[in-house]
Amino acid sequence: MKPARHWAGIGENTFVAGIVLLFWVHRLLGRRLFRLCLLPVVACYWLACAPARAASLQYLRRLERHCGALGRQPGARDTFRHLLRFADTMLDKLLATAGHYPADRVAISGADVIIDGLRQRRGVLIVTAHLGCLELCRALADRSPDVVVNVLVHTRHAQRFNALLDRLNPQQSVRLLEVTEVNAATAVLLEQRIAAGEVVAIAGDRVPVSGDRTVSVPFLGEPAPFPCGPYLLAHLLRCPLYLMACLRQGAGYHLQFVPLAESIRLPRQNREAVIGEYAARFSGELARLLAASPYDWFNFFPFWDQKSKS
């Protein structure tokens, strides 16, 4: 079978039943035994899924050429470690969702300005990427219990995941909103959330499921497609735009908020070029973050060679 050239063609591998099972295995066995159980599971997946191995190796090689993050030429052992990191991070995602991840293991930087604005009912748009443990954005609630985060997702399972979130943690303040593309109806809904002083988060590293609203910018030294959606949305919502990342740091994580633009105004002429400038700023920040935490990139598909899914 020809490997998918678009992330949406890979299918939903994270099923709700599997997520619940993973959570309870940890509850019964503890972290150390859980990690031991992960080894054979990841080994089987690593052996069986050649596209994931190839995507991992492509990314690690380009990262090494770009900044020497590994200090050596990556090989099969590094791709296995990459997949193992992803599997281990899945547990932290569940613990964060359930409110069981220790707050003292999460360092936060760049959030004070955002929280001050939210308290004054000035919402913000956050662009994220599939790296690290973004679910720990719930650590914001420890500083400001009234923070509400709306996450735009492409999956058709959004309602099921919302139900799962409520089961794991009825007090959680994160909502998943299912969208396939950013359009006028989406903008109206999100404008209401921003006006209410809420956070809206959107992935900046996944091209649209339908349509061709993408721009090609350098990423780790090679041109890669990035979605225009986050920057079009920031233009429509007229609100600040931040990058959010939560990467491994020692025995815990570092939740970072990086300002990308206080506001975005896109001209009618040369609009794509201006969007490309913002997307390049985003991709440059991603490269900087990954140089410090190379195994936290969780896009296991041909990232530099995506094609729109029909």
Commentary on this structure:
This protein has 310 residues and is an alpha/beta fold. It has two domains: 13-97, no CATH class; 104-292, no CATH class. The chain is built from nine helices and nine strands. It has helices at residues 16-48, 50-67, 76-98, 112-119, 140-143, 158-168, 184-195, 229-237, 271-292; strands spanning 106-109, 124-128, 149-153, 174-178, 199-203, 214-219, 222-227, 241-249, 252-261. The chain has a seven-stranded mixed β-sheet. Strands 6-7 form a two-stranded antiparallel ribbon. Strand 8 and strand 9 form a beta hairpin. It starts with 15 loop residues before the first helix and ends in an 18-residue tail after the last helix. This is Acyltransferase. Pfam families: Lip_A_acyltrans. The chain crosses the membrane at residues 6-25, 32-48.
Distance between the termini: 17 Å
Shape descriptor reads globular
- Strand residues, percent: 15-25%
How many domains would you count in the coordinates? 2
The largest sheet, given as strand count, sense and whether it forms a barrel, is: 7 strands, mixed
User: What's the gyration radius in Å?
Assistant: 19 Å
